[in-house]
Design a protein that fits this description.
- The strands form 4 sheets. The chain has an 8-stranded mixed β-sheet with strand order 1-5-6-9-12-13-14-16.
- It is 33% helix and 25% strand.
- The chain contains 8 helices and 16 strands.
- It is of the alpha+beta class.
- Helix 1 packs antiparallel against helix 6, helix 3 runs parallel beside helix 7 and helix 6 runs antiparallel to helix 7.
Amino acid sequence: MSLRAYGCGQEVLEGLKAETERIEGLFSVTKADSEIARLNAEGRIAPSAETRDLVGKALDLARETDGALDIALYPLLKEWGFTTGQYQVPAEARIRELLALTDWEKIELSDAELRVADGMALDLGSLAKGYTADVLTAKLKEAGVTSALLDLGGNIQAVGAKPDGSAWQIGIRDPQGEDHLGIVSVKGAAVVTSGGYERYFTGEDGQVYWHILDPATGYPAKSGLLSVTVIGPAGWRCDGLSTALFVMGPEKAQAHWKQAGDYELILVTDDGQVIVTDGLEELFKLSQPDKYTLTVWKRD
């Protein structure tokens, strides 16, 4: 986690760190006293306003993406070893068994209670960093900060512009190497990337398995995409969409982008294309034109 802010004292940054730790204490699946960990252990909790709000956002996004985002995938992620580091390819029968427990439509949320069926478990990791960036941005603005850059483990949040008024230059990682794929210029926006390169393992069969699972199959998503970068005003939404659109693939991602109208995209396909949406056409510079072909999607 890297927090850089201009025009404020060290106490403001320390406050951001404390706020991040407080939010982790709500949503972490590994801290036994967090609200989500208690839900997973007990099956029901009386959620705080923040937990209720973020779960509600997750369920809305699940509906919007036809289930491509599913916060109930934790039992499958655990079975694959992505939460423990003890990687394995589960037996097909075991995946089918766990798929019955990974259905966002079975999550019950009301003002007074958050409840899941026996054996279900939630993981808000697909939205929590983006949500945290939104909260920290609000805290910075309350403190009068107009220029800051937050990096929460790959979730970038630009607050305003650089101190000299110019745009922040954000490097987008090449999913097939360590270099930058390109540079995008942003002001006051979240830049969130999801890709198979973030967490993966090679199975005994020689295949690469990554942590972004397709909720429909229980297996790593094979959609023709290697990475998805979403740029927009709301960190939580960009965070969730980066995962969902990765699962959906280029054709459905394009349709969603055109319909939603509130974010821009940088996609890397497995056939060597870098696709940017037209709102970024003048803001994105491809760093490796010899390796990738640049394509621009037009909204009309």
